[in-house]
Amino acid sequence: MRDRLTVLAPAKINPYLEIRGRRPDGYHELAVVFQAIGLADRVTVERGDTEAIRLRCDDPDLPTDGRNLAWQAAQALRQQFPDLGGIHLTLEKRIPAGAGLAGGSADAAAVLVAGNLLWDLGLTVSELAALGATLGADVAFCVMGGTALGTGRGEILSPLPATEGLTVVVAKPRHLSVATPEAYRIFREEGLLAVRSGEQLHRFLGAWATGQPEAIAPHLFNDLERAVLPRHPEILALKNQLMDAGAIGALMSGSGSAVFGLVPDADAGHRIAQACSGPVDFWVTHTYRGGIAVVA
Length: 296
What we know:
The chain is α+β, with helices and mostly antiparallel strands.
């Protein structure tokens, strides 16, 4: 019987995000495409010697108590399986927080998947995703991984054909994070909702299925850019820098503050990153067809 399990938890980007209206529960009705990428945290789940949930993290700015989604995921497992006992978590962070890359959600999904394996709980991927959805739509996707269309508040997931190996440059202003609720609040208060027929999503999905950056780039779309970019012009400036440096297309991911650019290959990605200026962190990575992966 194993005492610990270590997994990689991939980040996500959103090459398409359309807000379709406000729901009675206060959330927004979405049509959003999720895509896993190679940038990933490393998450270790261990059997504890007490009844406590304990969390360690190498990023001192992140909470290590019930405010952390990974901690909440461990608690969700314990609520469903009260005999689990203590759960010890270790997070080794590479995905930046407050970036629209699902860093916290990826960690939570990793805890659910690793906990299911470590304690042999027998939950299916669908059951794990449903449990993840109680913590957030991004958690549900991160359990599944790959490529998916999310509807409802994003938690109703339909797998899409894998688009693996597209090279992306992810860029984040070093000292800027955007809170997702704040982005949606601005969108709502400024009356930015637009009625769309569904044809825009159809065109995007057709382009995405080609796997060709040149076909995809004109159809990248994020409704939240209209709320976030006027408040944070440095994100728009970074997006423009990526395009000026040679990205085929660029878009803010989720609620930001990260943007990503589609590029021809890794060499071009590194050249584009080096050509951009300012206090910005860069990652050259790729789209990924998998999800949470056991490494030790």
